[in-house]
Amino acid sequence: MNVIGPDKVSVPDYFTSFSIPGNRVTGGIGFILPNSGSSLPLQSFAVTIDSVEKFTGIDFFSALSDKQEKSKSKNPVY
Questions:
Q1: Which helix (H) or strand (E) holds 5?
Q2: pLDDT of 69 over the 90 cut
Q3: Residues 6+ apart with CB under 8 A from 49
């Protein structure tokens, strides 16, 4: 990971995000974007939420049952 400034602030190589529409029972969309700029459309970086979880090593829905989590994480909504 790169650092900047005299305080050596860490700058991540990637930015991750995801969104689940508020009234939706299943599905959502995730993004893994390189922190280097790009002229590609945002859709080029769209992935499943499960992919974001694997990339970051974070289980964002640990409070849900396995069945609920699977329906939200593996069904992309584009």
A1: none
A2: no
A3: 18, 20, 28, 29, 30, 60, 72, 73, 74, 76
DSSP states of 39-76:
-S-GGGGEE-HHHHHHHHT--TTTTS-HHHHHHHHSSB
Q: In this structure, are strands 14-19 and 9-11 parallel, antiparallel, or unpaired?
A: unpaired
Task: Give the residue with greater pLDDT, 33 vs 62.
Answer: 33
pLDDT score of 1: 77
Above 70 in pLDDT, residue 25?
no
Q: Which helix (H) or strand (E) holds 2?
A: strand 2-4
Point out which residues pair with 15 in neighbouring strands: 33
Tokens of 2: 């790169």
- Report pTM: 0.76
Asked if 31 and 16 count as a contact pair (C-beta separation under 8 A), the reply is yes
